[in-house]
Write a structure and sequence with these properties.
A: Heat Shock Protein 90; 26% strand; B: Alpha-Beta Plaits; 3 domains; 4-stranded parallel sheet; 11 strands; 38% helix; elongated
Chain lengths: 141, 434
């Protein structure tokens, strides 16, 4: 299926000040579409974690979102180191964030865990040295 | 007709300046034909527009002391913030003054506030997760309209004033006062609380009858306080000084912390409240168990119907509640805390009821946003370009409401006119020298 994105946003590496903009924008769009508030909340959390991951770990990337009657798809694609150990990355508390990032209060090792907990379907495609592509789906009902 | 809102517009004073439009937290105001009209479904009665308006065109209407006459048995419910209006005056003297003004009973909402604090501690101990105080009606309405996903996180208790009012009704009935004779008057610091009388939150009907603006009762009290022989009846029992600290942002927190309840954050001012709720929405607030939120900066002392500036009033409250104070209200069993209705989300923000149509309109919206200059100047009467685009898509505004788009179109038209003016009909000959 060809997707028409309702949101397409470039996320820069280390741009903490803009962290949350994609999530807020998507939340706003979903409200305009009359999407159920519980679904909006899940989407906002997943999107926020996805964009923060790009900011913290990658060399920059994109957040895109599409919607149909079935659900909301959020795509995150980045140029970055990739995730070396995917299994570990899903363990609560595991993080490869730098000390500097941790000092800012990020990188607690809950990002992917939250993404998994709040989405209904999740696909992670990662290649060390190339980048990571994530697709999270949240059902509308 | 049930009055849904308390914030009103004096049309003759409004100059159409858009200051209120830009400062409205829910984007509820549009200047239309030179007047700042409020969209009822979006208004939360937070009074930011009254605060912002330099022309005093926005106002609110409350009852006055003259309305006591309509009730054989009028009683006063005094909110905690009220005592902050008086410097160097003990609450007992304020209460005595109120009796002089014709009230047959004076009750401290601060007592119910203490009870709510105790009940909140119990609730937080029994429930996992993060909860939000529901005592500020401005905040509750903001959540209903912009953050409906957080409605389930509101503490499901009545506000202190409603709790007190319910209890006062019961007490008076026991004393033999016929319910029809009772007139429960509340001294309101803000329009948001006034609105809850006609449009209650989480309940079928309010237990209050009337609200008088603090500024309307203040001069009469000062007059009483200046009379040396002011004596008479004091309040019922010891002054609930700790409950009185609820009148300022952080007051609730003070009581909870005394009872060793941690993880509390207090935030005041509607724009700050929005910022913290945005962070909660993203799950980006960690370690907090309870949020004390107030729509007015500094808490209820910051309400626009008060007389004293919020900082002096806050200081006055702090002076009253300092020292080794104890809770007066220990018996929470006398109150019926639970709200009878669930907080309901406001039905706003949708572009269309039908999903496909909404999606179509969303695409149109993106197009309209591209056409507009993105300066958010508000000269069109909407707070920003995005909102104008939304109004255009919903058929409530036109592209040419934007002065920049209009100017561009006039420019194009002028070019075309000039082109036409210089076009020669084929039968005419060019003049020499042309």
């Amino acid at each position: 299926m060809k997707e028409k994105y309702i949101l397409e946003k470039r996320i820069e590496k280390g741009d903490f000040n803009k962290g949350g903009e994609a999530s807020s924008k998507l939340k706003d769009l979903l409200r305009k579409l009359g999407v159920d508030s519980a679904v909006i909340r899940k989407t906002a959390i997943v999107t926020y974690e996805l964009e923060m991951n790009i900011i913290i770990h990658s060399e920059g990337g994109w957040i895109r979102a599409a919607i149909s009657r079935e659900g909301i798809q959020i795509f995150a694609a980045d140029d970055g180191p990739g995730i070396a150990d995917l299994e570990k990355a899903f363990q609560p508390g595991y993080s490869t964030a730098s000390d500097q990032v941790r000092e800012m209060g990020f990188g607690a090792g809950l990002g992917l865990v939250n993404i998994k907990n709040y989405s209904d379907e999740l696909k992670v495609d990662t290649k060390t040295g190339v980048g990571t592509k994530i697709r999270a789906i949240i059902h509308l009902v | 007709m049930v009055k849904k809102h308390s914030v009103l517009l004096k049309e003759e004073k409004c100059v159409g300046c858009t200051n209120c439009v830009k400062n409205c937290p829910t984007k509820a105001i549009r200047v239309h034909q030179g007047k700042a009209m409020i969209k009822g479904e979006l208004c939360i009665d937070c009074a930011e527009c009254i605060r912002t308006c330099a022309y005093h065109a926005k106002y609110t209407e409350t009852a006055g002391l003259e309305d006591l006459a309509a009730y054989p048995y009028p009683v006063a419910l005094v909110p905690p913030s009220f005592y902050g209006q008086f410097e160097q005056t003990d609450p007992d003297r304020v209460v005595a003054a109120l009796y002089q003004l014709g009230f047959k009973g004076v009750y401290d909402v601060a007592r119910a506030a203490e009870a709510v604090s105790l009940q909140t501690i119990e609730f937080l101990n029994e429930h996992e997760g993060m909860y939000i105080s529901s005592s500020c009606p401005g905040v509750v309405r903001l959540i209903k309209i912009i953050y409906p996903e957080l409605l389930a996180d509101l503490i499901p208790f009545k506000s202190p004033v409603e709790l007190m009012a319910e209890r006062v009704r019961q007490e008076l009935e026991q004393q033999g006062v016929p319910p029809g004779d009772m007139g429960l008057f509340f001294f309101t610091p803000c329009p948001a609380k006034l609105t809850t009388i006609t449009n209650p939150l989480g309940m079928e009907r309010s237990y209050l009858d009337q609200a008088i603006a603090v500024e309307k009762v203040y001069p009469a009290i000062i007059k009483q306080l200046n009379q040396e022989q002011l004596t008479g009846v004091a309040g019922d029992g010891p002054v609930p000084f700790l409950g009185i600290s609820w009148g300022q942002s952080g007051g609730e927190t003070t009581i909870l912390k005394r009872k060793k309840t941690n993880g509390i954050l207090s935030v005041s001012g509607i724009h700050n409240v929005k910022r913290v709720l945005d962070e909660i929405d993203r799950n980006n607030i960690k370690g907090i168990k309870y949020l004390e939120l107030s729509a007015c900066s500094q808490g209820c002392v910051g309400g626009i119907l008060n007389v004293l500036n919020p900082f002096q009033a806050k200081y006055n409250l702090q002076r009253l509640s300092s020292g080794d104070q104890q809770l007066v209200e220990r018996n929470t069993g006398e109150y019926n805390f639970r709200l009878s209705r669930k907080f309901k989300a406001g039905d706003v923000g949708k572009l269309a009821d039908d999903f496909d149509l909404a999606l179509e309109k969303l695409a149109q919206l993106e197009e309209e946003i591209k056409v507009l200059p993105g300066l958010d100047c508000a000269a069109c009467g909407a707070p920003d370009c995005e909102t104008l685009a939304e109004d255009i898509v919903s058929g409530r505004a036109q592209r040419t409401d934007c002065i920049f788009v209009l100017r561009e179109q006039v420019g194009k038209l002028a070019d075309r006119m000039s082109e036409l003016a210089h076009a020669l009909p084929p039968v005419m000959k060019k003049k020499k020298g042309d």
